[in-house]
Amino acid sequence: MKRLSQIASLLLAVCLMLAGGADAFAASRIKDIASLQAGRDNQLIGYGLVVGLQGTGDSLRSAPFTEQSMRAMLQNLGISTQGGQSRTKNVAAVMVTATLPPFASPGSRIDITVSSMGDATNLRGGTLVMTSLSGADGQIYAVAQGSIIVSGFSADGAAASVTQGVPTAGRIPGGAIIERPLPSRFKDSVNLVLQLRNPDFTTAVGISDAINAWAKSRFGAPIAEAADSQEVSVLKPKQADLARLMADIENIVVETDTPAKVVVNERTGTIVIGADVKVSKVAVSYGTLTVQVTETPQIVQPNPFSQGETAVQPQTDIKATADSGTVAILNGPDLKSLVAGLNSIGVKPDGVIAILQGIKSAGALNAELVVQ
Hints:
With 372 residues, the chain is α+β, with helices and mostly antiparallel strands. The chain has helices at residues 2-19, 30-33, 64-76, 201-218, 242-249, 335-345, 349-361, and strands at 26-29, 34-36, 42-51, 92-100, 109-116, 127-134, 140-147, 153-156, 161-164, 169-178, 191-196, 224-226, 231-235, 253-256, 261-265, 270-273, 279-286, 289-295, 298-300, 311-313, 316-322, 326-332, 368-371. The protein has 7 helices and 23 strands. The strands form 8 sheets. A 6-stranded antiparallel beta barrel has the order 3-4-5-10-7-6. The longest helix has 18 residues, at 2-19. Strand 12 and strand 13 form a beta hairpin. Helix 1 (2-19) packs antiparallel against helix 6 (335-345).
């Protein structure tokens, strides 16, 4: 009973926190719910070599591209590699990835992620040599180099090994220097396009109305229009500065709305119920079946002087118990009554997940059920 009361209290606390009262709307700044289309991130990628490993690099026979890259690098440095074969285990081929933030200027630094490509076992202590990072257009936008920070580790012996985290991947904070600016410039735009992080027509129209109400008092005319559930277009007035206009708009507070949704994770038993979730009147019964199998083998000794052998006689006891199911009527006009109805049945979170799936199959759950 104590465990059931704890589960009930936890569910009620989480759902009340999500509900925040009877009103499902929440006030948020535009900068918190939408992003500028011209200010999008860009992905960068590169191929490089990590040196200085303590014998945990690529085996050159299994990863021939590592040897080819190492020879090419040495030749570019004016070192001849003709004849002979390298046996070093201190080098590893890696892929370097990074995210180029919007409006990044040459000379600024960004974080990079380094991931092994070959059969290297650990990148700890390694140093990434100069690696160019290219965008989707094939142009080089940054150059990366530096010592790798690896959070995972591995240790092995002759008969056992232990690994924690991922030792074949690491990060270099500020490991890349931006060398080329992005082609598009913010000042060249004639309008602003706001993209909602959670597309919703109600929220998009609310953003447009809030911007127009502010623009009428500032410029004397509306400047925003909701294109669809995700985009809101803002026309730049002739007398306005684009950067200052965006700074004013992103701090406008609007009312946001979200669709009714229930998210369950069967692996962890997590249940998240939105504030607008409602359940039509339905009767629910829940019962569990427990099967317990116990093995108690017995040792059987032979009779004296019988030249018999000691034997093991297996003995298995199987016990099955079925808990009586409690029938409850759920009618959730609001979130609080729905949670109270689920808690009245007195089941564990995995049982609540099964009940929610059954209610959805019966057509009584007036929300989207997302199973992760």
